[in-house]
Amino acid sequence: MYRKGHLGVSLLVFAPVGYWLVSVGEPEAAMLTGVVLLWLAMLPDIDHRFPVIEHRGVTHSLVFAGLVGGLFAVAGVALGDVFRVAGLGLGTFGFLLGFLTVGAHLVGDALTPAGIPLLWPLPRTYSLSVTRADNTLANYGLFVVGIVVTGGWVLVAFGSG
Ligand SMILES: [Zn+2]
């Protein structure tokens, strides 16, 4: 998937999480989650910059999602118990945030026939084979749907509160 498609998928993954955070009175955490999800939506494609790492290899797996989650958890723990997010310590929240950020990218690439090695180092790739990565309509379509859905839940969440 290309950047626009990934941003769309990240917005769709963010929708239920963001809505939940706002509904439990954590709009700042919702905002932070959305910013991180969009900012790092392409993080797994960092493998393009390292010729030694196979594209759509380890960075497109649960191992990498766990690794990024772990780094975010360390950052959260380093901040200390200054506050909690929806009852979660910052370490836990950090892990979930990092894991979700990579997970959203994996969902986007799993839509393509090439798929992702979800259980790397096992060689099997997983694919939903919905659309080719370079399909312009799919990329723009996901992007637009992501924005519309985000606008919808933000209106509902803040309009009712
Ligand atoms: Zn990718």
From TrEMBL:
One GO molecular-function entry: hydrolase activity
Keyword terms: Hydrolase, Membrane, Transmembrane, Transmembrane helix
Pfam families listed in its UniProt record: YdjM
Parts of the chain that traverse the membrane: 7-23, 58-79, 85-107, 137-158
This protein's name: Metal-dependent hydrolase
Organism whose genome encodes this protein: Halonotius aquaticus
Organism lineage: Archaea, Methanobacteriati, Methanobacteriota, Stenosarchaea group, Halobacteria
